[in-house]
Specification:
alpha/beta; Dihydrofolate Reductase, subunit A; 8 strands; 30% helix
Length: 202
């Protein structure tokens, strides 16, 4: 499977709590829900739909998964919710129990945290077919995937706001990782919808 990292991201690289004020307040982050005013259904909704159409499964860290699990099962009947609920889902966590995960959101498989989860993700990437394994949010997990060179495609919605600090999906390890721009679309709200992939090694 191809690992696709999908994120709303501020101009200064923050992707913490784009969806709501209480989504993630770690570090006294006070800007939860910052992404909402910039959402353009025509351009951003179309891009999300196109990426979902080539996605075979979803991958989350524990915090993002818990937010999704609290939201989507109760919205059955909405086409997008039905699509989210039908996907196979994987969650990497030290604290969730497998039975708890599968009962709270259907089609969820628990991947043990730490190195075991990364090994399982490597196996999914190598043996899971040609479709996409899409990662939404999940800043800590996303940074680990980037650091381990496991991301095949970046779908970034770069929004015209500076947040002044917060969680990022990119590791701070001092290593350069060249990327190729595959496509860019400008939304009416000033968001740049960018697709990147790792540049071939020289």
């Amino acid at each position: 499977m191809r690992i696709i990292l999908s994120d709303f991201i501020s101009l200064d690289g923050v992707s913490q709590a784009p969806g709501g004020p209480d989504e993630d307040t770690d570090g006294d982050f006070a800007h939860g829900g910052w992404s909402g005013p910039y959402f353009d259904p025509e351009a951003m909704g179309a891009n999300i739909g196109a990426v979902m159409a080539r996605t075979d499964a979803l991958l989350f860290g524990r915090r993002t998964w818990e937010g999704m699990a609290a939201a989507w099962p109760g919205r059955a009947g909405d086409p997008f919710a039905d699509q989210m609920n039908s996907f196979p889902k994987y969650v990497a966590s030290h604290t969730l129990a497998a039975d708890d995960a599968s009962s709270r959101w259907n089609n969820t498989t628990l991947l043990a945290g730490g190195g075991e989860a990364m090994d399982a993700i490597r196996s999914l990437r190598a043996d899971g077919g040609d479709g996409g394994l899409q990662v939404w949010g999940s800043t800590s997990l996303a940074a680990q995937l980037v650091a381990a060179d496991l991301v095949d495609e970046y779908q970034l919605m770069i929004e015209p706001i500076l947040l002044g600090g917060g969680k990022r999906v990119f590791p701070s390890d001092g290593r350069a990782r060249p990327l190729e721009l595959v496509s860019v679309t400008q939304a009416a709200t000033g968001v740049l919808i960018c697709a990147y992939r790792p540049a071939p090694s020289a």
